[in-house]
Write a structure and sequence with these properties.
The structure is a single chain. Strand 4, helix 3 and strand 5 form a beta-alpha-beta unit. By secondary structure, the chain is of the alpha/beta class. It is globular, with a radius of gyration of 19 Å. Helix 2 runs parallel beside helix 3. It folds into two domains: 166 residues, Rossmann fold (3-Layer(aba) Sandwich); 86 residues, no CATH class. A seven-stranded mixed sheet has the order 3-1-4-5-6-7-8, sandwiched between helices. It has a three-stranded mixed sheet with strand order 10-13-14. It binds cobalamin and iron/sulfur cluster. Cobalamin binds next to helix 1, strand 4, strand 5, helix 4 and helix 6. The site of iron/sulfur cluster has 13 residues, from helix 7.
Length: 312
C-alpha cells in the first residue's frame, strides 16, 4: 500500500540557512531530523509498503505541493506526525486542506501530543479519520490492514459513521525496541545541520548532524512531565549493539561529523531540549558520549542526572 508521512513543523524550531544547498546537492535545514516519521517509514518499507516522506521544513515541498502529490498519487493513508502544542495548529491546517482537496483520503494523526489529547483532537478536527496513540510501529501496520474498520486496531481513536466516538483500548507497550529497524535516513532529501531551537539565540557548529534514539521512556514520576504517561512509567532501551549499529547507520553517509544522541525520555524544565541537543557527542561512539567505556546507552535526564538501578 502507499503511505504518505508528513512531519508537521512549528516554524519556530527550524530554519533554512541562506546557503541552502550542501555540496552533494541536498537541501540544508537547521533543525532536528524527524525521527518519528523516519522510524515509521523504516518499518513500513520493511513490510513492503511504498512510503513517501515529507518534512514541512523543506521549502521545496510546501503544503500545496504535498496536497498536489497526494491528489496525483492517491495514497491509501496520509500520516501527519507532530510533537506538541505548538505544531498542532499547523497539523490542523494541513489536515483540513487535505480533506477539502479529497473527501475520501484517509488521514491519521500521531505523536506525543496527539496521544495525550486523542479524544479532544478527534472532536476538534473531524477531518482526521484516526488519532493514533503511543508507539506507531505496529499500530500503523495494523491500521493499514483495517482502514475501513479500525474497531479492533488498538491505540486508535476514531468515529463511527453515526458519529459515535470510539477510543479503542491502549496498545500493550512493546518492551523490545530492537525488533524495529533503524530510522530511514535516506527518504528525505535533506541534510540536517546543527543548531539550537530558534528561541535560543545560539548557532552551533553548522556541521551536518543527526540524532539517534537509544531508548524510550523513563522510570521516574515527575508530575509535570508526560513521558511517564506515554511510556507507562517504563524505560525501554535498545540493546548494546544499538549504539554502534545506529552510529553506522548514520555515519555510513560519509560527511556526518557531529551527532547528538537522545533517550527521547527527558522533559522540561531543562530536560528534553538539553538531552536531545546538548548531550551532543562528536566523533565516533568511542570518542563521544560513550567515553565512559561502555557502549550501552544509559538512561539520562538532565533533571535527574543519574542511572536508575531498576526500572519500575
Ligand atoms: C527531540 C525533541 C524536540 C526537538 C524537535 C525534534 C524534531 N524533529 O522536530 C526540539 C528541540 C526542536 C523540540 C522542541 C519542542 N518540544 Co520537544 N521533544 C523532543 C523529544 C525529546 C523527542 C521527540 C522524538 O524525536 N521522539 C522519537 C520518535 C521516534 O518518537 P515520536 O516522535 O513520539 O514518534 C513515535 C510515536 O509518537 C508515533 N507517531 C509519531 N507520529 C506518528 C504519526 C502517525 C500517523 C502514527 C500512526 C504514529 C506516529 O510513532 C513514532 C514511533 O513509535 C520529545 C520527548 C519524547 N520522548 O518524545 C520532546 C517533546 C515532544 N517536546 C515537547 C515540547 C513541549 C516541545 C516544545 C513546545 C518546547 C518549547 N516550549 O519550546 C518545542 C515545540 C517543537 C514543535 N512543536 O515543533 C514535549 C511535548 C509535550 C506535549 N504534551 O505536547 C515532549 C513530549 C517533551 C516533554 N515531555 O515535555 N523538541
Ligand atoms: S522530567 Fe526526566 S526524570 Fe522526570 S519523569 Fe520526565 S523524563 Fe523522567
Amino acid at each position: 500500500m502507499k503511505v504518505f508521512l508528513v512531519h508537521v513543523r512549528d516554524p519556530q524550531f527550524y530554519a533554512v540557512p541562506s546557503n541552502t544547498r550542501a555540496k552533494n546537492g541536498r537541501l540544508r535545514v537547521m533543525g532536528f531530523p524527524p525521527i518519528g516519521v523516519m522510524s515509521l517509514a523504516a518499518v513500513l518499507k520493511r513490510a513492503g509498503h511504498d512510503v513517501v516522506m515529507f518534512d514541512q521544513a523543506n521549502p521545496e515541498t510546501p503544503d500545496a505541493f504535498i496536497i498536489g502529490k497526494m491528489l496525483r498519487q492517491r495514497p491509501d493513508l496520509v500520516g501527519l506526525s507532530f510533537l506538541s502544542t505548538t505544531s498542532y495548529p499547523y497539523a490542523k491546517i494541513l489536515a483540513r486542506q487535505m480533506r477539502a482537496a479529497d473527501a475520501n483520503v484517509k488521514i491519521a494523526f500521531g505523536g506525543v501530543f496527539a496521544t495525550l489529547n486523542a479524544r479532544l483532537i478527534k472532536m476538534q478536527v473531524p477531518e482526521v479519520d484516526f488519532v493514533c496513540r503511543g508507539d506507531g510501529e505496529h499500530l500503523i501496520l495494523d491500521l493499514l490492514d483495517r482502514l475501513d474498520d479500525p474497531a479492533t486496531v488498538t491505540g486508535v481513536t476514531w468515529q463511527e459513521g453515526d458519529g459515535t466516538l470510539r477510543h479503542n483500548p491502549d496498545r500493550p507497550l512493546e518492551r523490545s525496541l530492537d525488533q524495529w529497524p533503524y530510522p530511514d535516513r535516506e527518504g528525505l532529501p535533506i541534510d540536517f545541520i546543527e543548531s539550537m531551537p530558534l528561541d535560543v539565540p545560539a548557532v552551533l557548529s553548522l556541521d551536518r548532524f543527526t540524532t539517534m534514539q537509544t531508548s524510550r521512556g523513563c522510570p521516574w514520576p515527575c508530575v509535570f512531565c508526560d513521558i511517564p504517561i506515554f511510556n507507562e512509567g517504563k524505560w525501554r532501551a535498545r540493546g548494546e549493539s544499538t549504539w554502534s549499529g545506529n552510529w553506522l547507520a548514520c555515519s555510513g553517509r560519509a560527511t556526518e561529523r557531529s551527532s547528538s544522541w537522545t533517550t527521547t525520555s527527558c522533559s522540561s524544565p531543562g530536560g528534553s531540549r538539553r538531552s536531545a541537543a546538548a548531550s551532543a557527542s562528536r566523533g565516533s561512539p568511542s570518542s563521544g558520549a560513550a567515553r565512559g567505556g561502555s557502549t550501552r546507552p544509559a538512561w539520562i535526564c538532565f533533571r535527574r542526572w543519574t542511572r536508575p538501578t531498576a526500572g519500575r
